[in-house]
């Protein structure tokens, strides 16, 4: 394996920062002006975490490309960190959104689109009853509340280094066998060990120990970890999780928000999973805020039994804008015409092409890295072997190389997801887009190694 000269990384990073400043003068000006009215100078504080001196300000986006205010064009492999997975501004979805906006955006009453989307979600995920939210965070929050109500148990179990949006109970890590608040968890309402137990993915012994207390309402799991580098389940893991949850009377919630990359029904369909509840958000509405949660027949009956109909509007489950007409119109158009079964076949094939291009570079340069793919979602990580759990994946992060790769690619017209090296295929992504990444990735590796 090649050794990487850290002083060279620092020198290259300074060069790339200078290139960034030259290419993004207008963005730099807007970034300074924004500081006068926006906290941190951005609409959301995590937008400060892009490499470079400031965020790139976008002028427009279409398909799998966008253009910034300085006129630079980019291949977008970030796609809004899954929110733009349908591609930017797909015409059929935009037309449906515009038509519904002209007829009413939010009504507190159902539209015909709602039943269509519910039926389509049932087809894809094989759970029969659905409710709609604005985000996956809300979907996860609501099903956690239902799980506690149904089981009369207080705790949930999550995977170490999981991602479930900004749900309070999930911003936790496993530290020396203890559940602790994750670093950066702002204003946590209670100690995390009061609400949550954390186990590693692929650790069935640890999971059984967590469930054996008899106080766990639900396991909230991504089928594979996705926000710390992709960590895949080992053979038989999910079947054993299902058996343990059944044995200990715990509900199993599968969060498909990122793992929808596995196919039109996410890992639930692709791997034949058997959850009690499914949650998903981000990509359903082609960028319009949309989320959903579904449940089995058995769970739906328990929900009916535990619903206080007189006070259903104040029970902590729902929201005035949830299930609004605009979101449902966007979901119907996106699921029906953009994120189709056929589109996923093409996207996954492109994911395979991307994976092979990265692997060829890693192997030909003897880099101590690896690449992992989940359908049309791919990540590379800075350790030789695929991580088996969240702790191993976290140890494979590199605070020097990661921003250098991002900035090198950005300066050559390719956008990856910030915080980790994730690429996502959309229905609009092309083989040329993927080959462009492979070419620039190889150039980056050669620069890094001094070739």
What does this structure look like?
The protein contains 15 helices and 16 strands. By secondary structure, the chain is of the alpha/beta class. The chain folds into 2 domains: 6-85 and 341-449, Aspartate Aminotransferase, domain 1 (Alpha-Beta Complex), CATH 3.90.1150; 91-338, Aspartate Aminotransferase, domain 2, CATH 3.40.640. The chain has a 7-stranded mixed β-sheet with strand order 4-12-11-10-9-5-8, with helices on both faces. A 4-stranded mixed β-sheet has the order 1-2-3-15. Strands 13-14-16 form a 3-stranded antiparallel β-sheet, with helices on one face. The longest helix has 24 residues, at 341-364. The chain is globular, with a radius of gyration of 22 Å. The model has no long low-confidence stretch (mean pLDDT 96).
Annotation, overall tally of beta strands? 16
CATH architecture of the largest domain: 3-Layer(aba) Sandwich
Instruction: Note the main sheet.
Output: 7 strands, mixed
Oligomer: single chain
- Radius of gyration, CA atoms, in whole angstroms: 22 Å
Described by the principal axes of the CA atoms, the overall outline is globular
Count up the helices.
15
Report the mean per-residue pLDDT as an integer.
96
CATH homologous superfamily caption of the largest domain: Type I PLP-dependent aspartate aminotransferase-like (Major domain)
Q: Biggest sheet, strands in spatial order?
A: 4-12-11-10-9-5-8
| Proportion in β-strands | 15-25%
CATH class of the largest domain: Alpha Beta
Cα distance, first to last residue?
Answer: 15 Å
**Could you list the spans in which at least 5 consecutive residues all have pLDDT below 50?**
none
Number of domains: 2
Q: Provide the CATH topology of the largest domain.
A: Aspartate Aminotransferase, domain 2
């Amino acid at each position: 394996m090649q050794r990487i000269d850290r002083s060279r990384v620092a020198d290259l990073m300074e060069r790339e920062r200078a290139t960034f400043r030259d290419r993004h003068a207008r963005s730099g000006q807007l970034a300074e002006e924004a500081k006068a009215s926006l906290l941190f100078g951005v609409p959301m504080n995590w937008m400060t975490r892009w490499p470079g001196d400031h965020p790139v300000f976008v002028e427009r986006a279409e398909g799998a490309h966008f253009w910034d205010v300085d006129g630079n064009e980019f291949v977008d492999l970030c796609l809004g960190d899954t929110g733009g997975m349908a591609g930017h501004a797909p015409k059929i979805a935009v037309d449906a959104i515009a038509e519904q906006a002209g007829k009413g955006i939010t009504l507190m009453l159902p539209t015909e689109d709602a039943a269509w989307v519910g039926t389509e979600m049932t087809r894809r995920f094989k759970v029969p009853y659905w409710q709609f939210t604005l985000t996956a965070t809300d979907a996860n929050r609501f099903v956690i509340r239902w799980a506690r109500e149904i089981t009369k148990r207080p705790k949930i179990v999550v995977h170490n280094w999981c991602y479930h949006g900004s749900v309070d109970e999930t911003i936790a890590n496993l530290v020396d066998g203890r559940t602790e608040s994750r670093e950066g968890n702002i204003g946590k309402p209670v100690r995390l060990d009061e609400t949550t137990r954390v186990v590693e993915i692929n650790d069935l012994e640890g999971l059984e120990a967590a469930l054996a207390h008899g106080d766990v309402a639900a396991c909230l799991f991504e089928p594979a970890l996705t926000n710390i580098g992709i960590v895949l389940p080992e053979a038989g893991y999910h079947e054993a999780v299902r058996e343990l949850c059944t044995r200990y009377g715990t509900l199993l919630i599968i969060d498909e928000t990122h793992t929808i990359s596995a196919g039109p029904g996410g890992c639930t369909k692709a791997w034949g999973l058997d959850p009690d509840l499914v949650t998903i958000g981000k990509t359903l509405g082609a960028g319009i805020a949309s989320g959903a949660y579904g449940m089995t027949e058995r769970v739906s009956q328990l929900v009916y039994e535990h619903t206080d109909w007189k006070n259903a509007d104040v029970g902590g489950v729902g929201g005035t804008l949830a299930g609004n007409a605009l979101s449902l119109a966007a979901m119907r158009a996106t699921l029906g015409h953009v994120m189709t079964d056929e589109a996923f076949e093409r996207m996954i094939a492109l994911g395979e092409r991307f994976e092979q291009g990265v692997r060829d570079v890693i192997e030909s340069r003897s880099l101590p890295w690896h690449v992992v793919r989940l359908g049309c979602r791919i990540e590379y990580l800075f350790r030789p072997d695929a991580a088996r759990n969240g702790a191993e994946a976290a140890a494979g992060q590199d605070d020097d190389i990661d921003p250098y790769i991002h900035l090198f690619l950005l300066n050559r017209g390719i956008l990856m997801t910030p915080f980790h090296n994730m690429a996502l295929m959309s229905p609009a992504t092309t083989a040329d887009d993927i080959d462009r990444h492979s070419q620039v990735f190889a150039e980056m590796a050669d620069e890094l190694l001094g070739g």
